[in-house]
Design brief:
alpha/beta; Rossmann fold; 13 helices; 6 strands; 49% helix; disordered N terminus
């Protein structure tokens, strides 16, 4: 066989081989470069149920990491989120993040579950409170029942926010984890009575807005019995846990309304499997069959989709970043930039 004939013989096989090698590379690039169209469409429409379903489908057919990437890419594809990200990144790169405004605002912090008993979880929001205070801004921690139900704490928070209307300053609410659905309930209650005019913004940090599969897990047998015994030993009940399960939170979520004029900023981590820390892995794996999650709740279930969303790729529910203080300050600076430029929203 001549050399020319040999080349003609092997050329088709080489082409097929190269195409086969290139396909995974093209798929990986496409996965990262552009969000799944249905995910982006559900997010744009504010359809949390559809968003949850699309992400779960990607996790089943591809991988949970592909679904987490699709979520982050979809979030970052929306103009309102890109604009806020630009403000955040600029503030993060700045030497000084001291706000030029802020005297007329009061930061009201709504803590998470067991924030007094387990402050190491960050549920007490001690670091954000310290950073915001160091920026010269006024802060207040709402002393809600650390083991109260979502409904009871939501009502108590609404009463406290109504009382703060006489303070004269505009409120910036900052909630975390279980404090998220409680804040959502409180804002809905205030809005229905036209009592939210003094609320400027709500920063929702990893809120369990649609519940968490981890709570569902603890309400199953025998975990429920173990939880009841453990909490009884501490002199506590377990009523808060079923209020964080998915069924009641998902049933309530679409009925809640954000009052007009309240800016919502969702701050959420979007970790890949390799980013999950050992102390978060068990929770992550319990929730993983439902879709991509931050280690305590599904990514789709942690946001108010009509608001602005800032995604922190690689971070989980607890935001254990070495430069967390700078990120908090940058988030505050970006928030003020957004509040002082309402025409751009």
């Amino acid at each position: 066989m001549t050399l020319a004939k040999l080349v003609r013989f092997v050329r088709p096989a080489l082409v097929l081989l190269l195409l086969g090698l290139a396909a995974p590379l093209r798929a990986a690039a496409a996965e990262e470069a552009s969000p799944a169209p249905l995910v982006a469409d559900a997010l744009q429409r504010g359809d949390v149920v559809r968003l949850r379903e699309q992400l779960a489908a990607i996790a089943r057919t591809s991988s949970i990491d592909a679904a987490a990437k699709a979520f982050a890419a979809a979030v970052e594809s929306l103009p309102r989120n890109r604009g806020f990200r630009a403000r955040f990144d600029a503030a993060l790169a700045s030497d000084s993040m001291l706000p030029t405004v802020g005297a007329g605002y009061l930061f009201v912090f709504v803590p998470g579950w067991l924030y007094r008993s387990n402050p190491d979880s960050g549920a007490d929001l001690a670091r954000p409170r310290a950073v915001i205070g160091a920026m010269g801004l006024a802060t207040r921690l709402v002393p809600i029942d650390e083991n109260g139900t979502v409904e009871a704490n939501g009502a108590a928070l609404a009463a406290e926010l109504e009382r703060l209307a006489s303070d004269g300053r505009r409120l910036v609410l900052v909630s975390t984890s279980k404090g998220g659905p409680e804040t959502h309930l409180a804002l809905d209650q205030l809005g229905r009575s036209d009592g939210a005019g003094h609320v400027a913004a709500w920063v929702n940090i990893g809120g369990l807005l649609n519940g968490t599969a981890r709570a569902d897990y603890w309400m199953e047998w025998p975990q429920r019995w173990l939880a009841a015994v453990g909490f009884a030993f501490l002199g506590r009940g377990i009523e808060a846990i079923p209020s964080m399960t998915m069924a009641p939170r998902r049933a309530r979520f679409p009925k809640l309304r954000i009052p007009p004029g309240v800016l919502v900023v969702n701050y959420i981590g979007a970790p890949l499997t390799a980013d999950i820390r050992p102390d978060v892995r068990d929770d992550f794996e319990v929730i993983a069959p439902h879709g991509p999650n931050d280690g305590l709740t599904l990514l789709a279930d942690a946001i108010v989709p009509q608001g602005i969303t800032l995604v922190e790729r690689g971070l989980d529910h607890y935001f254990a970043a070495p430069d967390l203080d700078r990120r908090i300050a940058a988030l505050a600076a970006a928030l003020f930039g957004e509040l002082e430029a309402p025409a751009e929203r």
